[in-house]
Amino acid sequence: MNSEKTCLDCGEPIHGRADKKFCNDLCRNNYNNQLNSSSYNLVRNVNNILKRNRRIMEELNPSGKTKTTREKMGAKGFNFKYLTHKYDTQNGKTYHFCYEYGYLPLDGDEVLLVKREDKD
Q1: 33-62: pLDDT as tens digits
Q2: Whether residue 2 has pLDDT greater than 60
Q3: 3-state class of 95 per DSSP?
Q4: Phi (first) and psi of residue 79, to 5 degrees
């Protein structure tokens, strides 16, 4: 029984080794990129939102600690649903962080922007 194997990507007949699955590197790369694209799409989109949030806080907070409003952050495209972590203080306040930049919700629309410095 001599059935000819075909490329998993393009369906063309494969010549060469018995365990070969693709006719060339282009088909192998295309097949694997298609296979992985759907699973990485969500991760890529979330990471882009986190990086945008970080960039907005960095832009609004050049000194390392300042006040602004949720409205200003939202107008620049900040998405309050996404963050990397939270930090609870001893006095019960919760800071929301995107990497090293964070914010503390204050009264009304105000927020305190901070930059966390690593202490080595």
Answers
A1: 888 777 788 888 999 999 999 999 999 999
A2: no
A3: strand
A4: -110, 110
For 66-118, how does the pLDDT look when each residue is reduced to its tens digit (9 = 90+)? 999 999 999 999 999 999 999 999 999 999 999 999 999 999 999 999 999 87
For residue 92, the 8-state DSSP code is S
Which 3 state secondary structure label does DSSP give 48? Answer: helix
Per the rule left: phi > 0, alpha: psi between -120 and 50, beta: everything else, 77 is: left
Q: What's the rounded Cα separation, in Å, for the pair 46 and 8?
A: 31
* Contacts (Cβ under 8 Å, ≥6 apart) of 78: 52, 53, 56, 57
Q: Which two tokens stand for residue 66?
A: 């300042």
Distance CA 71, CA 110 (A): 9
What would the two tokens of residue 34 be? 């298609």
- Amino acid in the structure at residue 95: Y
